[in-house]
User: What shape does this take?
Amino acid sequence: MSGYVVGLELATDTANPGYYRRVVTAAEAAGVTLVTLSDSLGAPTARLQLDAVGVAGLLAPITHRIGLVPTVTTTHTEPFHLQAQIASIDFASQGRAGWQVAVSSTQQEADQVGRRQPAAPAELWREAGEVIEVSRLLWDSWEDDAEIRDELTGRFIDRDKLHYVDYIGRSFSVKGPSIVPRPPQGQPVIVLELAEQAAAAVAGSADVLIVQGAVQRPEQRPAQRVLADLGAAQQVSPDAAIDLHRAGWDGIRVAVRDAADLTALLDRLLPPLRAEQLVNPRGGTGRTLRNALGLPRPNNRFAAPGATAAGPADGAAARRVEGALQ
Amino acid sequence: MTSPSNRRGAGKQQLHLAAHFPGVNNTTVWSDPESRSQIEFRSFAELAATAERGLFDFFFLAEGLRLREVNGRIHDLDVVGRPESLTVLSALAGVTERLGLAATVNATFNEPYELAKRFGTLDLLSGGRAAWNVVTSSDAFTGENFRRGGYLDHADRYTRAAEAVRAARALWDSPADDGQFRFTGKHFDISGRFTLPELPQGHPVVIQAGDSAQGRDFAAAEADVVFTRHGSLAAGQEFYRDLKSRLPGHGRSAESLKIMPGVSVVVGDTDAEAEEKAAHIRRQQVSGATALGLAQLLWGIDLSDRDPDGPLPAEDPVLDSAVVQGRVRPTDPVGTVARWRAAAAENGWTLRETVIAQQNRQSFIGSPETVATAMDEFVQQRAADGYILVPHLTPGGLDDVVERVVPVLQERGVFRTEYVGSTLREHLGLPRPKGARSSGAA
Ligand SMILES: Cc1cc2nc3c(=O)[nH]c(=O)nc-3n(C[C@H](O)[C@H](O)[C@H](O)COP(=O)(O)O)c2cc1C
Assistant: This one.
């Protein structure tokens, strides 16, 4: 069973990897469900910012329960690389990867990459929707049981279980298949912060929505979770978090920007949530981020319906995850 | 403090060693009972742990950005499917201490800002152990997976790669206080603010792999390490001389560029046992289906209906062929086919036997003593500065080298007995880059 989701937004002006290790392992031990790692090409506030995918990679083998969700922009990046990076975190963490979708709209970001001019938010989020779609296709471009190691015929893979995605978007196209096999979760978790209005255009394709403040819960698909973004941990009272649970929210996200935030999270906010049994730091070793969120492992959209309904595909993937845990 | 082994090795060239994670080609044997997953993180962690136990300089990951095809269908005979290099190495940074971490990343399908940030991040996460193998392979086939699409012609690929490296260095050298940078060249015109502090190595180590004249010039101008394909002692010496002689023209010393051929090693209790093992591995590497596939690569025509246990194809090779995609063709198909035909006629070989005999001869085969002697000799005779070892098994393929050959090299005083430095540059004996914004450069 999934509990109340406590997300942690790690946004700090540091390039010290030890800081990330300390904060995230402490948060994991205290029952935090997932950490979103801020990153932007422009880094308008922070002087120092590490690549969030790299930080998630670092954390993958040294953590065991917490979801790792780097922020990656879709504006100046290659969709093919992006999905491969997230799938690779999923392998390194045995199924705990997510991706927080972002766009880059400033002139500074455009100048740093030097490929294209800034565009309006509506256009950038439309493209983000395409990048989400092609990422999901590429994660499915290998069926779970594509690797066969068949000595009789000398075949390592059954190539009928690898699929071209042949995606043609407005600003890019991708042939596929991915260079990475289907990741342990099938589909890593896509997180969307509804921070600007234009982002709502892609809300339907995210697995987790994060809403600023706790004003109004947006429309929610069945297999979708909605978290309230409550700002700096120091400013969040445990009662507010518990009230949101009663009001039907799936969880909260709080930001840790400095030591005082971390203390507030660990010593003030989480103990009452544990006492109410909303979070359980012991639960969930070896489970995937999808498990922790109560989200099913999706069927592969390329697989024959009969095959997935009967379950062999999921079974093979489950075995792979189990194997990785031994 | 001089240990006996150091005295024994006095005045001798020291070897550098790297571990290549098994690749997606038929060198990697997947049918062996000991072959494990090519994709689970545990395989990467185990091979890296073996390399670190052996005090290797670095761990190396190759890259391919489109799955190979034969006759328009995905190639299914070899190991395939691997994680994105930099992400895996970031994960390994957390579970290793001293081992260098080298990622192959294409300079055509990536932009300098992202490259500088991602490699810089790896350098910070690992405390100065990052290396970038700058490859240039690019074709319309691979381009179909990317925004930029298309491809660059050969000359442009290397000017872009050299510029990408210089641009990344401009970012790594940006002022520590505000990170402001600007780089203008033929391929890139970028400016802004870099968000990383001074890197532990100043600049991550740059590796180059590519053999053409442009490739060699690029290596002489920009690279710290060259990854070559192995030849004979004489061919190695010729390459070594050629490349090192280009360095003074770039104001560089001979020691500032390390030449490391990719080699595979088979160790046995005796030389005869090792030869037997090696022959067995070659048969595993070249199944009948694989023999046809490799012949197809050479001939450039569809051979799927031929019998691998029959004669060589009677046709002449086709020079401009698209039968095989995503893989480098042998450089001289006509000459190679002629050599294969002569060898087959002389020995009465079938196609598969010919392919086995001509392909993938492991470089060093023998007892630990024999292998160590040969590895040492190539280095003392200036055919190499060390080796990138390519195992045929995941992840246990270097166990023998680490357990049995490394001790002999140490005994001879030509390989370290402990890590002295903490950064990859220190392991390789490379100077800290002059342009780096560090106080340490002074
Ligand atoms: C030993 C060696 C290893 C290479 N490894 C890779 C690789 O992992 N990924 C890749 O895309 N290209 C790889 N290449 C290809 C080179 O980057 C280059 O594109 C190719 O050799 C053609 O360049 P050239 O004409 O200078 O030889 C490798 C080349 C060599 C010689």
The CA atoms of residues 76 and 113 of chain A lie 7 Å apart.
